[in-house]
Each structure stands twice: as C-alpha cells, then as structure tokens.
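ok so i was messing around last nite and threw this chain in just to see what happens. nothing serious, just curious
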Amino acid sequence: MTGTVVVMQTMTARPPSRRLLRKLLRERGSAATLVAPLAAAATALALSTVVPLLGPLLIALAIGVVVVNSRLGSLPAIAGHDAATKFLLRLGVAALGLRLPFADIVSIGPSGLVVIAVTVLATFTGTRYVGRRLELEGGLVMLIATGFSICGAAAIAAVEDTVRAKQQHVALAVAMVTIYGSAMIVAVPWLAGVIGLSDEQAAIWAGASIHEVAQVAAAGSLIGTSAVALAMTVKLGRVALLAPLSAALARTTPGAKGATTPLVPWFIVAFVVAVAVRTSGLLPQGVLSVTDVLTTLLLAAGMYGLGMGIRARDLWPLPLQVLTLATISTLIAAGTSLALVLLVGWGA
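result:
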C-alpha cells in the first residue's frame, strides 16, 4: 500500500523540469544564463568542423574550463550557470531518445542489466571501503561513491542533503568526478581501440564506466556515431538507480534528511517517450536531422557547464587521499565493466 501511495505521489507531483524552468524564468538575469551556455555550445559546434577529432562536446568542456578560470568567470550572467546548464543537459539527454529505436535497446538484453547492476554495486561498495581505509570523512566518501558509481555531479547533488555533507566536500567531489570523467572521454575510446573492442563493446563499456551523462555522450561520439545512443542507454540504466540508492541512504544514514529524489527522474521519462516516437516512424528524416543537431547543441551546453565546475583555485592543493580514492573508484568502475563486457562477449 505504501509503495502505491509513493508512486501516486510521484505521478501527481509537479514535474521537476517544470519547477526548474519556472525557477530559471523567475531568477534575475535568467535569460542571460541560458544564452551563455548555448553560445558556448554553438561555438563548440563550429570549432568541431575545424577539429572534428575532438568533437563538439569535448570542445564545449574545454571552453567552460577556460572561461571559469578567466575574468569572464566572475560575470553574473556567466557565474550563475548551474540551473541553466543542468536543465539544458537534461533536455539533451531526453532528446537522445530520438536517436534510439526500440530495437537497439532490446539488443542490450539481460546481460546489459547485469553489467549495469554489478558495476554500480562494485563501484559504490568498493569506494566506500577504500574511503574508510583512507580515513576520509564519511560524508565526502559517500558523495564520491555515489557520484562515481551513478551519474556524477547530478548524483552528488541528489544525496548531499541526505548525507549532510559539507559544502567544501560537495565542491571537491564534483571537481573529482568532472576531472576523472573528462579524462575517461579520451581514455575509454583509445583503450577500446588498443584492446580491440568492437564499437558495440566500446559503447557499452563507456556507458557502464564513465561518470557523467554528457561525458558518456562525448566518449560515444569519439567511438562512432552509432555508439552514442547505445552508450547513453547503458548510462541511463545507471541513472535510473539513483532514486533507489538515495532512498536507501535516507534510511540507513544516521541523522539523514529525507530523500527528495523522484521515483523516476523526469528526463528518463522524456527519454522513453522520445524512444517511442522514434520507433513509431512518425517523424520524417528531415525532422530527425534537425533534432539531431539540437540534441548535440543541448549536450554541448551541458558539457560547458561541467567545465565551468573546474576552478583551479578551488582544487589546489588537492588532498592526496582524495586523489587516491577518486583514482581507485574510477579503476573499479572501468575494470569491472570491461571485465563483464569481455566475459559476455558482446559484439565480438
């Protein structure tokens, strides 16, 4: 009965996307906070035609890093980017469903679910164990474990109140997940080629191991055009585990505040709807070509926002124990998922 009530409350609650959009529109200078990331994304798209190897998403990330570490980063219209870039990123994730017919999702099968579940469990529990051995504060360890195993900064933001984390620890965890995940954008496609993985295997490895949603999209674009949707499908399987994990932490963390994560994030629902529309064949190829460009633009805006989170002055000096934990957590996620991909022999 309780579960039914929770589901009904979730279905009838005002969608988070609508609340976030209204918040954006209410805030002073909100129009400018939308213009800056979209302008950066458009610039990245233009530059990617000159340097196609890097791709627009990776270029957008670099633009964000440069901007935030310059005098431009202090301008109000640019500094207040968080809500805008998160919203644009989630719209981009939802729009990715238009690239993915249902048949591609079915091709992952039960083995894909096993890879997702085992990787998340191994990364979360392994990170917590190592963090305790390194004698780091519990709140910081929990943030890193959640961010590295689920979906990066979004997961960290979802549980920071639940675990009563310090703001300094939140900023540090977000920086770590952004830096290490950004490094994996290049490392995973390159290593996949060295190992001899097929595009399908590499896409599944990327989706199961890389931390941020936009980082997975960027890595998928380096693997191949067809790899992006498959990698994102696996990644969204990890994202879907955020709600139950947040609820579990609320029940098991001493003194935790109540979890407020929705049962199903709105952008996952929108992604599923977009997949249904794509599968139905209702949209002509011309429309799909336009939405494909818009999707890349939205994801690039999200990557710009992630780059804006890498402030050099906030990262130095970095505690050795935190770097050690972030490194080990990344290796657990990458190693576990790669071993499982090779074990099941996808697309070999």
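not much to say yet. Residues 1-17 have pLDDT under 50 and may be disordered.
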